[in-house]
Amino acid sequence: MSVMIATGRGAQAGVLVRDAAALERLAAVDTLVVDKTGTLTEGRPKLAAVIAEDLSEAELLTLVAGLEKGSEHPLAEAIVQGAEARRLAVPGAADFEAITGKGVTGMVSGRGVALGNAALLGSLGIDTAALAERAEALQVEGKTAMFVAVDGRAAGLLAVADPIKPGAAEAIGALQAAGISVVMATGDNALTARSIAGRLGIERVHAGLLPENKATLISGMRERGGVVAMAGDGVNDAPALSTADVGIAMGGGADVAVESAGITLVKGDLAGIVRARRLAGATLTNIRQNLGFAFVYNALGVPVAAGVLYPLTGTLLSPMLAAAAMSLSSVSVIANALRLRAVKP
Description:
alpha/beta, Rossmann fold, Calcium-transporting ATPase, cytoplasmic domain N, 3 domains, seven-stranded mixed beta sheet, 14 helices, 13 strands
């Protein structure tokens, strides 16, 4: 009864509970692992810089936008929108391939194009040393820097900036004040991740992670005795969401992330986690109160109904009164559970 009413109250507050057990476990969570893009940040990055080597900026951006034209990734959308804003004609791509955790490759206008991190270009045998210093400077500013290769040679850098969600710092502070350790786990590079984490007051950062690495990280935390919640919104977060004790999906994120999570935050803001946590605590307190009511009624009523007072006082409990007492027990539990409707998470 308490969980059912709490689920309804949560829906009113923008917290959808898909797994009732997840709501109960959330009250015991001591570690929250959060993804960066789309969870701590708005997930709507914008093209911030184009750095070209041998090609012009317009040529470089045209090739990369053509490569990313068919992708639904937020970074890809930022690049294509940036090219369109500069009134560039964006061609299509052939032989497109997405390499998990590294980047994408393909053919654009007859030229081989690769976009991704240094590991991607390294796997293609392309040296990125000449661009490393400028990439690091962009990353220190909190921007995501991506290396570009054209026809097997390093051709430049693209950088996108993703603003931090309003209220994210306050929500992180509230969670930490409640005794929850907040950990960032992201596939982005360490410099960008630490720049964002520093603004939010997050001290523990794990960067450059593949989807399976996030799941492994959470498994390790649980094996060490932690009760772990994971918050994310992307396809890459699905394994970690299903591995955690409580998976929390951001509303508007990938369907697979929502399906993998026990709780979904409709508005996609971190304050929703604070609301869900408070609701979970109120629900467990209510459940304990209901158990207490039931125990007291049974501890007193059953012996009296069995005639324990008859040898002493001659008192017997009539069947009608016994039935009324039993009904009153149920009514008190229901009435107490209904108090959850007034909770303000």
